[in-house]
Amino acid sequence: MPLQYINEMLGLPELEIHEILSIGENEVHLRAYPTARLQPCPICHSEHFVKREGKNTPRKIRHLSLFGKKSYLHVPALRLSCSRCRIGFVWAYYFVGPKQRYSRLFRNQTVEQALGSTAAHSAKMQETPASTVQRMHQDAIPAESERLVQQAWNEAKQMEGLVLGIDDFAIKKGHTYNTGIHNLRGETMLDLLAGRKLEDLRAYARQHPEFLGLQPKAVVMDLAKGYHTWINECFPKAIRIADRFHVHGYVIEAVQAVRKSVQLLLTPKAKEMLKRHHRLLNPQAETLPEQELSMLHTLLGYSSLLRSVWEWKESFSRWYDYSANVSLAQIGFNRWCQQGTQIDHEAVRSALKTMRNWEEEIVNYHRCRWTNATVEGRHNRIKAYQRRHYFTRNRDCYKAGILIECNRHKLFG
């Protein structure tokens, strides 16, 4: 292949390939020289007084793969001097940093692979030491995280009808938690703060005036009182919405509590069947395949109380899906609560008490139909990130890595 075509494939206009040194089974070695004769002095920024003083040992730079093989560029380390400034300096190549052995394009490609998986996987793909890939990854994280977060905040500030999602996830379940702030409409994670208590949230608002500068139309949260108090203080005009996923969880817990009490009164065979297939009680019946739906009806035939509470749960799902407006939703919610009062079980009474306490926030879903479903998906990605990186001890790196993981779809956009 003519050398000019190799020059075009490499995509490095500052270099010109002069010679193919060797082509092995897995490697290609090329000798290249700068296309320019001189470089400006780093102090006076002029070439007029610059001259060449000789060469040091050539630099060997790993570049992107060429012909399916690892490619290495051998470039001269030219010594230069400026007679005006009386300094000596070495030729600076723009495609590779000073004292580095990997080109910028190679580093970018390697980091892109590592962000989506692990340093070990990227190292295997690039046939590079894992420690080297890890170092590239750590070097790239702060700048990329800052760029993505700034982009997400700018988008949120300019967005009309902004809808925020607030939810926490565990670092150590039952002990340590983080709280994420999400732009649901823009599908981005805005920030991550340590803790989930009200004093932690208030401290964050004081330290970040740009958060108070947002103008959300609505904020979606679970039923944690601290979140609603905080959002009411920060955005009193915003619609506070109780997240459907969390609200529905209270109803499902009541169904399972009834199932456990019913289970004790059944025959051993029926008890074993109900225990084995208890998860069929949770999803909507219309989402189940025919075989599982048949098994569900068998389970409901074991107890009239179990069937009643299951029908009550199904009515709640239909209320969420089919309420046409807020006024009809209010009427339907009251009817659903009346249906629950006819079920004589402590778990149902407890769930109804919670629902009545949060009636306004639950019904607000029909004013602005948003949920934290995408946030829950991000939590799964965060947990996977934590397992891959073994809970990075440096808080700044940990936070930056999570923000990149959750905004990765805009990383190279």
Explain what this protein looks like in three dimensions:
- With about 425 residues, the protein is α/β, with parallel strands linked by helices.
- It folds into three domains: about 5-100, no CATH class; about 160-245 and about 370-410, Ribonuclease H-like superfamily/Ribonuclease H (Nucleotidyltransferase, domain 5, 2-Layer Sandwich); about 245-365, no CATH class.
- About 50% of the residues lie in helices and about 20% in strands.
- It is built from 16 helices and ten strands.
- Strands 1, 2, 3, 4 and 5 form a five-stranded mixed sheet that branches.
- Helix 3 (about 120-125) packs across helix 4 (about 130-160), helix 4 crosses helix 16 and helix 8 runs antiparallel to helix 13 (about 345-355).
- The longest helix is centred in the middle third of the chain and has 29 residues, at about 130-160.
- The protein is elongated.
Question: Which features does this protein show?
Answer:
elongated, 5-stranded mixed β-sheet, Nucleotidyltransferase, domain 5, Transposase_DDE, ISL3 family transposase, 413 residues, 3 domains, Transposase_Znf, alpha/beta
Topology:
Layout: H1 3-10, E1 15-23, E2 27-34, E3 50-66, E4 69-82, E5 87-90, H2 104-116, H3 119-126, H4 130-158, E6 163-172, E7 176-183, E8 188-194, H5 198-207, H6 209-212, E9 218-221, H7 225-234, E10 239-242, H8 244-263, H9 268-276, H10 290-300, H11 304-322, H12 326-341, H13 346-357, H14 359-363, H15 373-389, H16 395-406
Parallel strand pairs: 2-4, 6-9, 9-10
Antiparallel strand pairs: 1-2, 3-4, 4-5, 6-7, 7-8
Helix pairs in contact: 2-3, 2-4, 3-4, 4-16, 5-7, 8-11, 8-13, 11-12, 15-16
